[in-house]
TrEMBL record:
Keyword Glycoprotein annotated: no
Gene3D superfamilies noted in UniProt: FAD/NAD(P)-binding domain
Cofactor(s) it depends on: FAD
Natural source organism: Trichonephila clavata (Joro spider)
Protein's gene: NCL1_36095
EC number(s) on file: 1.-.-.-
Entry's Gene Ontology molecular function annotations: flavin adenine dinucleotide binding; N,N-dimethylaniline monooxygenase activity; NADP binding
Protein name per its UniProtKB record: Flavin-containing monooxygenase
Enzyme kind, highest EC tier: oxidoreductase
Length: 72
């Protein structure tokens, strides 16, 4: 079997990018890198004190309640 890993670039570290990156890593056999243009992952769901052009942010009072944990 070949040890060659297909390189995959995921653009954007919002929820879609995080889920895609985690799924590809879980599947294995890929060399995955996620590019995020801001300093934090999470996209819309990440609270940013400073606004970023074209990237929405939740309010500081938003409470996120979810049942899963993901590691990038
Ligand atoms: C309170 C709330 C409730 C919501 N409810 C729903 C719902 O019920 N259903 C629904 O479908 N949606 C809902 N949304 C919309 C929300 O946008 C999506 O749920 C989800 O966050 C979209 O994820 P995404 O990864 O596609 O995009 P985003 O969260 O927008 O992430 C995109 C990421 O890509 C990065 N990026 C952009 N351009 C580049 C580039 N050129 N290079 C590198 N990185 C880049 C950005 O910085 C950002 O981090 C809700 C949003 C909020 C705040």
């Amino acid at each position: 079997m070949s040890s060659f890993k297909k390189k995959i670039a995921v653009l954007g570290g919002g929820f879609a990018g995080i889920a895609a990156t985690a799924s590809l890593k879980e599947e294995g056999g890929f060399d995955v890198i996620c590019f995020e243009k801001t300093s934090k992952y999470g996209g819309t769901w990440c609270y940013r004190e400073e606004s970023e052009e074209g990237v929405p942010s939740i309010m500081p009072t938003t409470i996120i309640n979810h049942s899963k944990e993901m590691e990038l």
